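User: Hi! Is it possible to get a structure for several chains at once, not just one? Here's what I have:
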Amino acid sequence: MRVNPNPLPDLISAIQQTQQQINTDLQQISSGQSVSVPSDDPAAAAMLVRNAGQTAAADQYLRSVDSVQGEMQNADSTLNSVVTTLQRAISLGVEGANGTLNDSDRASIAAEVQGIQTQLVSLANLSYQGSYVFAGTATQTAPYVLDSSSPSGVNYLGNSSSNTITVGDHFSLQTNLPGSQLFSSAGSDVFQAVQDLITSLQAGTNIDSAVTEISSAYQHINAQRVFYGNAMNQLNSQQSFLNTETTQLAQQQDTIGGADLTKVISNLESAQTSRQATLEAMAQTQQTNLFNYIK
Amino acid sequence: MSSLNASLATALSGLTAEQGALQATTNNVANANTPGYSREVPVFVASAPIIVDPLTLGSGVTLQSIESVRDPILESRIQQETQTQGQWTALASALSQTQVNFTSGSGDIGSAISNFFNSINQLSTSPADLSLRQGVVTAADNLATSFNVAANNLAEQRTSLNGSVEQSVEQINQLTQQIAKLNGQISNLQNVGEDAGTFLDQRTQLIDQLSSLVDVSVIPTDNTISLTTANGTALVAGQQSFQLSTQPDASGVQHIFAQGNDITDTMVSGQLGGLIQARDQEIPGIQAQLDTLAAGLANAVNQVQTGGYDLNGNPGTNLFNAPPASGTGAAASLSVAITDPSLIAASSDGTPGSNGNAEAMFALSTQGLIQGQSPTDYYSGVVFNVGNASANANAEQSASAQVLQQLNDQRSSVSGVSLDQEAANMMRYQQAYSASAQVITTINEMMQTVINMKTS
Amino acid sequence: MSHQLFSNAKFGTAEAESGKQPPAGPEKKADDIAESSLNLLRQLEASLQASQRALLSGDLEALQEKTCEQLRLQGALQACWSQNGAGARESNPMLAEFAIASDLRAAQMRVLDLGRVQAAILSRANRWLTTVSNLLAGAAAGYSSPVKRWTPCSPRRSVGGSKGVA
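Assistant: Yes, the chains can be modeled jointly so their relative placement is included. Here is the combined structure:
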């Protein structure tokens, strides 16, 4: 039987194969990732694209949640101030209804309630990062202005629209309550109630019914605050969910495409050793003419 | 024919039908997870003939006479596999370059799509904010650039392949000239009864080289040989060589001509076949997918944009310059039509604080915009297609190399399966191949399924 | 993007504490599944490499034997992954936090690659076989109904360990 007199092509291809393995290992080490080109694992490469998209989206949702939480916290604490202010108005009203007061006393109380009215306008015109929070979607104009010719003492310049924001896959929630719903709602108009208290204190009549009006406006505001409470609870849960999701996505990404560097390095070492051995074998072969050994 | 041959013939005729079934199975292995790939139903196809002196196809051969054709058949097989190797090497090399555009990195199309939609979601939290609006414009610019860069690279690669086609044709012409000359020298020696061994060896070498470039059939004619391509284009007839020429078409793509006929589409094997396949099918196919994605995305975004209102309360205008109606070239030409951030149409009712249209634009990211898929999912499919084509080409190249090595070992020594052994055991071999192919298919599908299993 | 230099903390602990009762529950089961999977994948890899050599050298016996072996290994792997319900997170070793997850991934990729190369060599081998059949049959070559398929690795062969199968 004849021996293959041309061992060189086999050796050369063996060297090329180990060299290729070395190059692949070097690439893995420098990128820290084992799927460095799609052909290494096409299905994994496709999965990594989708994983990256989901991860980026989850990160974005977390940022949006954060932004909305900031605005809602501001809105809610402002409403808290409104409620406190209305409580003060009620006290003043009760005091003013006391039959023992004279006109001059009641006029002082009325003046203080006028101060409250101004304060409420200021609170209702809350601005957050360049936009008015209680203006509906007409956010570039202050929603409330004092107007002595208006029955409620103010004019509402905003609208009744609201926004929603997507903070999860097919999950969105309403982000704002317009002033028309909060402060100027028919039957529970905060400003109307305050104006009526001012008028009744000045006139000295119907103070009790004005105080009742303010009480019911106070309850209306409290009821509306539920919206913010609910929304912030939802945002908190969504935040937890998104944090879990990003962790899972990161694990998935590591599993699909992460390289075990210690393994890669040891592969590299053994590939280099084997290439060295092959080169040495080739050097030896070139010095020998195998035909010398064939009978 | 002997009775042995007649009964063999009946049994073996079924093998011709089985050939298609096995090819379909191996195609299914390669494409198991390609989106939209429908599994092939085996069809009955004929196999490529081998014409070997002193036989021509169809004359039949007995088991006894196989011995005399063993060596020339081996030569023929080596040439065939050399062609196949040349083809897959060219294709594998081209695709490994192509897929660089689809590795994940900071500028890749996938991240650019994500960043674009994320900038819109951020805008939704504060639609009147000018810096957030600028963020959307910038992200749109980066998205357009990512498409432009990829499309440009693919176009450049086609140009480079075009040059390689020209070079290959030049090499082919040189070789056919040399072979024709050798045919003359061989004839001269043989006519006077002398040994033409050295020249015959040289000629075999040259034919091998030619085989790596183009599909070559060697046909014995009179006392010399002719070389043709598989579909009959003449390359060499005895001492005469027929030169191929190249001519660019209207778009600069080099076509190959033989005696005035355009034979480009018939070049399917060898390095030339691989280059043409890469240049005219694989890369244009990927370009088309990028164009589909770019056009689909741009049109959808524009539609939402023009349905809303900008910061000034005016109806929105296109965010991207409208892509070509046919879609072709959409990726290369994708560009942003807006520089003023106040023109982003975030509002759905004309008020500056409304984010309804921005929400609608963000919702596009999960809608089936492009052939029923979201932009990111469609892009992941493109990545898979490129990676899969490249992996297949690499596997085919590797298979060719190993088979060629085996055949060369057979040529150098007397090892490996003999032709009569193959002929006698044909049924068993075919059944064994078929069984192996079925198991490989199952294993392959199983591995892909696990990859696709998602977290709960 | 972070990479994990797997310290094999979880895996190593199980090994270090062999002899003690391992933790029960999904974690332990997932560890078992991961380990069994890796074992089977490595056997599959070796089998595919052997069947490739058999295919190239025309060793019919070895090719058939390895095909049966691959069928058996594939079935074992399928059964392994079906524990706890297919698709369940605990039973999918690809997606859990295993120290050997990257080994599993690498083994899977090698099996995929070997499968592709085997398929490519198979199609060449079969093309050649058809050519031989054409040579032999000559003008009698026709297109009749397919030859009845032989089912490899019938049950009675694999029960109780078949001859030659690793």
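Chain B has two domains: 1-47+438-456, 101-377. Chain B is about 60% helix and 5% strand.

User: Great, thank you!
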